[in-house]
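FAQ: What does a ligand-bound record look like?

Like this one, built around 3-methyl-2-oxobutanoic acid:
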Amino acid sequence: MRYGEGMYGPATSDIRLRKVTAPEIRARKAAGPKITMITAYDYTMARLVDAAGVDVILVGDSLGMIVQGEPHTLGVTLDEMCYHGRCVSRGVQRAHLVGDMPFMSYQLSPTQALESAGRLVQQGRYESVKLEGGVVVAEHVARIVAAGIPVVGHVGLTPQSVHALGGFRVQGRGEEAEIRIIADARALEEAGAFCIVLEAVPPCLAKRITEAVSVPTIGIGAGVDCDGQVLVCTDLLGLGLAPPPKFTKRFAELGAAAVAAFEAYVQEVRAGSFPGPEHTYKANSNAGGTTA
Ligand code: KIV
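The answer part, i.e. the structure of the complex:
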């Protein structure tokens, strides 16, 4: 029985109305169409992303930068991921909801990884968890999957290793590095990950990995040959004040539109033209108070 059918609610074959599941995402490798994933960190953004028919919403630990204004993801905590997961989950009807496992919430042992993943599902209302790394976390992934929690892998540029990598740099340049990342992706596949994010690797490597594994690859800065794509919502909307990374496309310029709207508000308040009569409650002449 599929989620959305029978005891879980009305059956429907309309993909726009059904809840997207991890097994469905995995099956897209063969069946298509390409998988779409966008990040969200709060209820309002989640509603908008979900309304657009996106397959997967990721509460990324990029919230360290996007929401908290930090230079990297390393300070994000499990409690914060749970809080944002709950906010986002209230705005999601259709998309599959994935939450990042923050730095140091899974590296210590498979047991620690399972405990943290369990908290994300129970307290953060996530349906899957994502963690960074390949061969070194394969055992951790297997333990989480065995407990019934779907796992998304993440290889290539792994932002939680920013200090070891010497910055947010393209990975997988050169045959040795390519072989290492392919081995990482295969280890995740064997451990039971249902899809793998490939971040900031040359497109030829992304293509090799995509052909080498039986689970979908979801690229960010990894070219067009992946089985899906992921972008950070604020990059996609043009909401950032700094220039976006090379691999991002701004599908709108909402940052500039927002600043223009705030400026117009400031001008109208100062000029006394806002609020106008249409924004103002009428007095109730009998009671001397206000009415809605
Ligand atoms: O944290 C994040 O937003 C991510 C995506 C960039 C894949 O991991």
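Follow-up question: can I read anything off the structure? Yes, for example: Confidence is low (pLDDT under 50) at residues 1-13.
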